[in-house]
Specification:
This protein is α/β, with parallel strands linked by helices. Helices cover 36% and strands 15% of the residues. It is built from 10 helices and 13 strands. The protein has a 7-stranded parallel beta sheet, sandwiched between helices. The chain has a two-stranded parallel sheet with strand order 7-10. Strand 4, helix 3 and strand 5 form a beta-alpha-beta unit. Helix 1 packs across helix 6. The N and C termini lie far apart (63 Å). The C terminus is likely disordered.
Length: 314
C-alpha cells in the first residue's frame, strides 16, 4: 500500500533534514510550501517522482484538505519567530494546527506529528508561547492521537541562533548578553528530524508529547562565551540593562526583520529546558548530539580569515 507523507513547511530548516529521512523510510512525500521552487533541491533526495512540492492556501479548509488527501502521515513544521502583522501568531501557530488536524482526521491519516516548542503555555507573558499552546490544544481536540514534539533552541548549519550571534561577534567590539542567566538546552536539527521520523513509526508515540533537548543545559551567557571561543574572537561579554533592551526591542519592531522583539524578550526571561518529568529523546530511542560536535564546523567561516588555514611554501 502506498505510504504518503504530507509535510507542511517541508522546505524549511527542519524539513530539509526530515525529507531525506522519510524518503529512506519509503514514504512518497508531498511538501507543502509557499515557495515550491525553494523545495526543488529536495526532490533529488529520493527516487524520481517520490518527492513533490506543492503550494496551498493554508487559510482555506478546502486547500488544507486537498493537501492531506490520501496521506498516511501528516507533519506540521510551520512556525514563526515574530509577527509581521498583528495576529500572525494566532493565525499561524494557534489556528493552523487545528485546521491541519481536522483535515487529517477526515482524510483518515494514521499519524500526525506536530512540532511545537518548549515553553508553550496558555498563561505565558509571550504571545508566541500562548499561540504554541493554543495550537497544541486545537490539534489535540481535532486529532487526539497526534504526537507533539517540543524542542529547545535548534542548532544546525542554517540556524538562526549561533549564526546570528557569530555574525555579531564578527562586527561588534563587544558581545551583548541579554538575560544572561536564562538556561537553554540546544538540540541538533538532525536529532529533531530523527525524532519526527521515530514518532511516525512507533505505536507508543501516538497521543504523547515529547520535549527535546541536547545533552547539556547552558546559560545564555555561556552560549555567548562559546560563540566567541569557536569563532576565535576576543570580545568582552556585556550584560545589557533591561530598560535599554526593552527600548531597543520596541524600536526594532518597526524594522522589516527585527533583531529582537518585546515578545522574544519575554521568552528570553524563561528557562528553555526539558522538564524533569517530560518524555524525551530516550523514550524515542535517540541519543542526542552535543553542540560541540556540530557547531564549530559551520561557524568556522566567522573566524578571522574566514576560517581558512594559511598555506606555507615548502
Amino acid at each position: 500500500m502506498r505510504r504518503l507523507a504530507t509535510i507542511f513547511g517541508g522546505s524549511g530548516f527542519i524539513g530539509r533534514h526530515l525529507v531525506p529521512r522519510l524518503a529512506r523510510l519509503e514514504y512518497d512525500i508531498r511538501i507543502i510550501t509557499r515557495h515550491p521552487d525553494d523545495a526543488l533541491p529536495l526532490t533529488t533526495q529520493g527516487r524520481v517522482g517520490q518527492i513533490v512540492p506543492r503550494r496551498a492556501d493554508l487559510r482555506s479548509d478546502d486547500a488544507v484538505a486537498a493537501a492531506v488527501a490520501e496521506s498516511t502521515l501528516v507533519v506540521n513544521l510551520i512556525g514563526i519567530l515574530a509577527e509581521k502583522k498583528s495576529g500572525d501568531f494566532n493565525r499561524v501557530q494557534g489556528e493552523l494546527p487545528g485546521r491541519i488536524g481536522r483535515a487529517a482526521a477526515r482524510a483518515g491519516a494514521g499519524r500526525v506529528v506536530h512540532v511545537s516548542a518548549i515553553g508553550a503555555d496558555p498563561g505565558s507573558e509571550s504571545a508566541y508561547a500562548r499561540s504554541k499552546a493554543a495550537g497544541e490544544a486545537a490539534l489535540r481536540e481535532a486529532f487526539p492521537a497526534a504526537t507533539i514534539l517540543r524542542p529547545s533552541i535548534i542548532f544546525g548549519p542554517e540556524d538562526q541562533f549561533f549564526n546570528r550571534f557569530a555574525a555579531m561577534a564578527q562586527m561588534l567590539p563587544f558581545m551583548p548578553v541579554i538575560c544572561g542567566g536564562t538556561r537553554f538546552q540546544p538540540v541538533y536539527v538532525g536529532d529533531v528530524a530523527d525524532a519526527i521520523a521515530a514518532a511516525s513509526q512507533r505505536p507508543d508515540a501516538a497521543g504523547r508529547t515529547y520535549e527535546l533537548g541536547g545533552p547539556r543545559v547552558v546559560s545564555f551567557r555561556e552560549l555567548m562565551g562559546y560563540v566567541l571561543e569557536v569563532t576565535g574572537r576576543r570580545r568582552r561579554l556585556v550584560e545589557l540593562p533591561d530598560g535599554l533592551v526593552r527600548l531597543q526591542a520596541r524600536l526594532g519592531e518597526h524594522l522589516p526583520s527585527p533583531p529582537l522583539t518585546r515578545d522574544q524578550l519575554a521568552q528570553l526571561r524563561r528557562d528553555n529546558v526539558v522538564g524533569e518529568a517530560a518524555a524525551g529523546f530516550a523514550e524515542l530511542g535517540i541519543s542526542p548530539t552535543a553542540m560541540e560536535a556540530v557547531v564549530p564546523s559551520y561557524l568556522a567561516r566567522f573566524r578571522p580569515g574566514g576560517g581558512k588555514r594559511r598555506s606555507f611554501p615548502y
